[in-house]
Fold each of these.
Amino acid sequence: MAAAETEETWQTEEIRETGDAHTKSAQAEAAQPEAAQAAQSKPAAASLTASLAASLTETDVRRAVAGARTVVVKVGSSSLTKPSGHLDGGRLDALVSALATAAGEGARVVLVSSGAIAAGFGPLGFDARPLDVATQQAAASVGQGLLMARYESSFARFGVRVGQILITAEDTIRAAQYRNVQRTLGRLLDLGVVPIVNENDSLASNEIRFGDNDRLSALVANIVRADALVLLTDVDALYTAPPSQPGARRVGFVPDVVAALGDVTVTGPTSGVGTGGMVTKLEAARVAAVSGIPTVLTSAVNAGPALMGDPVGTAFAPVKHRGSSRRLWIGFAAAPRGTLVADEGAARAVRGGRASLLAAGVVEVRGEFSAGDPVWIDDESGAHVARGLSGFDSEEIPQMLGRTSAQLRRFLGEEYAHPLVHRDNLVLV
Ligand SMILES: Nc1ncnc2c1ncn2[C@@H]1O[C@H](COP(=O)(O)OP(=O)(O)O)[C@@H](O)[C@H]1O
Ligand SMILES: N[C@@H](CCC(=O)OP(=O)(O)O)C(=O)O
């Protein structure tokens, strides 16, 4: 690696408000007339800025990781597999040794493991990672089984049991299914099992999928209320530019990942088997940071030292505030399926962070979606205001537009007298 020697630390500048509405409390009054909503809405910016003030030092972050009661560790395909499309058992065993040691010391460990596709294409006779979705899904189906078999035997060396959890974005954005995932993960941890999580690649449809396990790991960290997130990859740390570029400097500590995003050059995967590259790892660190979770990013061979709090890789400070975990899922988990266009008053009320989106303030519906699907809420100029879960199927909505709750009740029935998007189901963007 041509990375240079100088270690760099970003100083915390004034924290910018970046549209991280996922951190904003939108516990709001029930839907009200627009004027009342606007009058009661308090600007969230001041409290948001205060809550985003990152104040932890690198030592604090390292200590938090070492002392984490619950830790989520994500490992990438390139750290577990060979370019030929087969598992690299030796590297997998080394990772498991580090995780089992942490578990043996009392940590509740969740492993988010990539590698299903990368471990499956070789046994299927392909020379390189397949490009078409159907073959990727077939490879994942084969590779996931191989991966779990190897994890089971490797953890068994330490008397540790593992459990497989395959998640689709679709399974988890709805409240009931989200709680189901949360409950299963919690119970596995209570039973002393190491849950091994991956996206359900064989079944996830392309339109609605995480696509990368970096973001998934941050969301899982949120769902299990982890105390730390460790991202393991094939590079020892974050650099100011892709490490192959001359002059790239290693970054030891990032006090404010939001500000840092503008200061580093990152690219997608370079390994041929990874999917998101450094772009999605920074996104994961950002999601973790706004969830109040410290993150360390380093290479898989550094898993043990990272978990012990040694100064390896890059440490990312969290912000103080821990947002609602379910809101994060709404904000990050899935691509919106359609759009509800809000009029000026409704857009203002929603932006205020305290209002549901009522049919009375919606002028247009676009796209085809079902109740519970994620949708954009746009203003009339086309700017995104929020993401939310629709309360109705798209085909039901046109007859509701512009009508008050009383009119909806009278003309369409009680079941229609509800917000199109309830305030608990939306996040500002
Ligand atoms: N600024 C950067 N600092 C460090 N690595 C970077 C940067 N920009 C791009 N990368 C690349 O990101 C790669 C890791 O991403 P990826 O291949 O998706 O790994 P994984 O399979 O572990 O998810 C590294 O090998 C590195 O080449
Ligand atoms: N879910 C996919 C991996 C997706 C992914 O994020 O891969 P990577 O960039 O290697 O962490 C698989 O198991 O093949």
Amino acid sequence: MKDQLLAEAEQFITTCYKELHKNDDEINLRILQIKEKITEFGYYEHTFEELEHGAKMAWRNSNRCIGRLFWDSLTVRDKRNLNTESDIFEALEDHIQFATNNGQIRPTITIFKQESDQNRIRIWNHQLIRYAGYETEYGVIGDPASIALTKKCEELGWQGEGTPFDVLPLVIQINESSPKPFPLSKTHVLEVSIHHPELSWFEELQVKWYAVPLISDMCLEIGGIRYTAAPFNGWYMGTEIGARNLADDYRYNMLPKIAEQLNLDMNRNSSLWKDRALVELNIAVLHSYKNAGVSIVDHHTAAHQFKLFEQKEQAANRNLTGDWDWLIPPVSPATTHIFHRGYKDEIIKPNYFYQEKLY
Ligand code: HEM
Ligand SMILES: N/C(=N/c1cccc(CO[C@@H]2CCNC2)c1)c1cccs1
């Protein structure tokens, strides 16, 4: 195990320090230091500089991410010193406030203590901000994707209002102690009501979504060290909300309601009623976020930015890796260059990984 850790550390320091334009003496000195730490204690710790650049490299290596052009502009917050659930909760509220920035979203990651034999911090939420889901005898209220976590939160003593848009509490667990729920104050949660630039009936659907996507259940691995609590945010690509979260029939399932209002022929697939409803919903999402001054990107602009990323990686002499299945957008994929080429789905570290589900 120590040899494996040392090998990962050496590989990371070599790449990271070269990118930071450090010379061979600095690289060898740092590797020697780490070797001593691992030999004596069985682990080592990153400097802030290593942590910051490692988190950026991990974003750059995220094969499924179309937003990687901006990898070097990630804001990294070092919270490895925090030890209690309430201190961690406070740091998460600060992250939400800083990243939201009144709508001018700042891509940010907050990194908590690394995993060790004595220490494991986990955030049970998939995203820091997400709506609850309730199974009732009349069907599901809220987000079906949240049913399991909502049940867990209720077992832990949390009580939602029962609306389709109840923001779940943050659930923080340290080691094997009971996970603790912390309700988020609504003042921290910026939301956008969805309306359409031409179709005035759209607002009668009374649908909204939150501004900031903040993934909190993935593990950041840098140089053999695992950060099991390292929530990160960017801004949304419109299709994530308009073609998935609000459109999937196992999510908010809005397409039939929209098609009805559009008086489309829903009895024939070939009327393409689903496709027309989908496009209008995505137009409404992009229009509403822009109108509210909340950062968002359409899938055409995002694909163009990804093209620039491909060119930048080529110029930097780095091999581009990607996961085609995820990189193509769910709306009009073949209108983007991504659809018409291939990508090598090789896993390079540092990177962000799934970790075991705790509920
Ligand atoms: C800045 C704006 C960003 C945009 C528009 C963006 C866009 C996306 C989209 C559309 C996906 C696919 C999600 C899905 O289909 O469910 C994705 C995946 C991903 N993104 Fe980005 N991203 C951004 C920033 C970031 C940042 C800051 C990080 C980390 C530091 C990141 C890491 C990832 C990872 C790890 C995945 C794969 C998640 C999985 O495998 O479930 N992205 N991104
Ligand atoms: N726009 C985004 N979209 C996502 C990025 C990563 C993951 C996800 C959600 O993935 C879920 C798991 C599989 N599909 C939904 C969405 C970002 C979230 C955090 C930083 S950027």
